[in-house]
Write a structure and sequence with these properties.
By secondary structure, the protein is an alpha/beta fold. It folds into two domains: 123 residues, Rossmann fold (3-Layer(aba) Sandwich); 65 residues, Penicillin-binding protein 1b domain (Penicillin-binding protein 1b fold). 36% of the residues lie in helices and 20% in strands. The strands form two sheets. The protein has a five-stranded mixed β-sheet, with helices on one face. The chain has a three-stranded parallel β-sheet with strand order 1-3-2. The longest helix has 15 residues. It is elongated, with a radius of gyration of 20 Å.
Amino acid sequence: MSKEFEQLKAAVDAGERVVTLSGVTSTSAKAHIIARLRGETKKRFAIVADSNTDLDVWASDLSFWSESAIATIPSFEADPYSGVSPHAETQERRALSLWRIANGGGGLVVLSARSLIQRTPGVAEIQNLGCELVRDNDIAPEQLVGKLIAGGYVREDPIFGPGQFSLRGGIIDIWSPDAEQPVRIEFFGDTVDSIRVFDP
């Protein structure tokens, strides 16, 4: 291990607010150093990229070097006053990353400079939007539907993509943005009777 890296690690461990490293130019080399610091210090690191494109480059390089989960928070491309809705994929990525961070995950966070100035819900609000579904536990289907709508899910029947849900009697189909396939939740009254993946 190099003397320079040991000095850098000591500065991070000591909680110094400004740490300088010179002579490293490529994103991949910087990602390697940050991933190694994360692995050895177990501290959370936030990397601010110039744009969403740079954010994706950083995330790719970090995932190569690190075993830590990487949370990405892209900015909305649309001006908030233009009346144009942000792209669904951007909303999904932001929501998943914010959920992971609010629940203690995301040891490496990559965000674009523009996303720093965009309003973000507080930790308690993010945690309140979600819930954990376990077989034989109770939750009213109406309460779950309310959480889905508040979380930005769209009601479709049948569902055909991530970020959607459908409700038919005591059956709720949900396609989470981080899942390859949707899940079907069957209720017996307010009790979760079964949860299974299905092919839409």
